[in-house]
Structures are given as structure tokens and as C-alpha cells.
Amino acid sequence: MSSTETRKQTPAPRPRRRLTRDRRHRQLLDVAWAVVREEGTEALTLGRLAEQAGVAKPVVYDHFGTRPGLFAALYREFDARQTALMETALRASEPTLTGRAAVIASSYVDCVLAQGREIPGVIAALASSPELEKVKRECEAVFMEQCRIVLAPFAAAGTIAPAGLRAMLGAAEALSYAAAAGEITARQAQDELFEIILAMVARSR
Questions:
Q1: What is this structure's pTM?
Q2: Residue ranges in the chain modelled with pLDDT below 50
Q3: Non-local CB neighbours of 127 within 8 Å, separated by 6+ positions
Q4: Could you tell me where in the chain the CATH 1.10.357.10 domains are found?
Q5: Which residues contact 46 (CB under 8 A, 6 or more apart)?
Q6: Which of 44, 103, 146, 183 could hold 178 in an S-S bridge, CB 3.0 to 4.6 Å?
Q7: Residue 124 has what pLDDT?
Q8: With respect to CATH, is domain 20-65 assigned 3.30.450.30?
Q9: How remote is the C-alpha of 189 from its chain's centroid?
């Protein structure tokens, strides 16, 4: 068979279908989470992300700018998912202290476990720069304010002290990460956080 005939029988490569910006952003985030899950946060660079996503480096730089920008985007996505999960559960819960506390405890733990063991690594990476630490603090402030609004009606003083909310958040993170690492079960993490929330409200009475 001649080379001419061979060329005629070889199908032409299909042109790549270009993704919209939103879909490309979604793809890049999904690939970034996969890299963190399989290789750890240290392996996640913009170059590595471009390689794994099958795109040119300028595409990744256009979406995230810098490596800290990429980690900030990952954390914001996790935080948005956590907020949405809790808001949905709160709307369906009983308007009682135990009902609200149970939702906060289960939603926080469930969201961390749904994201997998990679989220502690992402959060640890946030402490690597003041820029990323600021992003984390801003998201934490929104979460604590949401909890304060939900729990304040059950406190005699009509509000929850900031120190109590900060302690609750610290416990939520520690218990959720312990569950993600397999040190305790999800139920144990949720039950302990539930009791901590009740105690926090009781101290505010």
C-alpha cells in the first residue's frame, strides 16, 4: 500500500472543542482537587495543573493568576459548598436549639468528609501567606455570623459571645479533620460538636 493510500485511510484528528470560560474554570478546579487528593498540596502548582488539565500554562494563569490565587479559589469553593449545605439543612430543620445545633454540627462535618482528606491540606496551605490567611479569616467570619444569627434566639442575652463562636469553630475544624483522617467516626465528630454548641449557648444564658 502506498503512503498516499495510507494517508487517505487515516482519519483526520478531531478539532478540540473549546470550553466556555465557566466550564474551563470548573474543569481546572476539579483537576486541582484531584491533584491535591492524589499527590498532596505541595504538588499543586500552576504548571502541574496545566499539565494535568491538558491546557497551556497561560490558560491557568488567566484563571487564577498565582498559586495562592488557586488555593484561595479552592477554599472559597469549599466554603460556598459548606454554606449552601447548612442553609438548606437549616430551612428543613426544627426551629429549636437542638434542631439548629444538630444541623450546624452535621453540616460542618459532612461537608469536610464530602470534600475528602484533601481539604485539611488546602487549609494548611492557606497559612502560608498573609493573603491566603485573610481569605480564610473572611470565610470564617461569615460562618460564625451565620451561626450567631441562628443560635442567638436561644441565648438569654440574645447573642453569642465572639469567643464562644471562635471556640466552636476551632472544635468543628479539629473534629472534622480527625474524622477525615479516620481517627474518629463521623458520628462521634458530629455528636461531640453538637454538645459543644449546646454548652456554648448555655454559657450565653
A1: 0.79
A2: 2-8, 10-15
A3: 133, 136
A4: 67-203
A5: 57, 60, 61, 64, 66, 67, 70
A6: 183
A7: 79
A8: no
A9: 18
Residue 17 is predicted with a pLDDT of 57
User: Residue 165's pLDDT is what?
Assistant: 96
Which CATH number describes the domain made up of 67-203?
1.10.357.10
Q: Count Cβ atoms within 10 A of the Cβ of residue 150 and give its class: 0-12 exposed, 13-18 middle, 19 or more buried.
A: buried
Q: Where are the alpha helices (DSSP H) in the chain?
A: 3-9, 21-39, 46-53, 57-64, 67-92, 97-115, 118-126, 130-151, 162-180, 186-203
**Cα–Cα distance between 75 and 126 in angstroms, integer?**
8
Model pLDDT, residue 12: 44
> For residues 6 and 80, what is the distance between their CA atoms, to the nearest angstrom?
54
| Eight-state DSSP code of residue 17 | P
The residues of the chain that CATH labels 1.10.10.60 are: 20-65
Yes or no: say if 39 and 122 are a contact pair by the CB < 8 Å rule: no
Q: Are 126 and 132 in contact (CB under 8 A)?
A: yes
Q: How far is CA 197 from CA 6, 105, 184, 186, in A?
A: 72, 8, 19, 16
Note whether 32 and 24 are within 8 A (CB): no
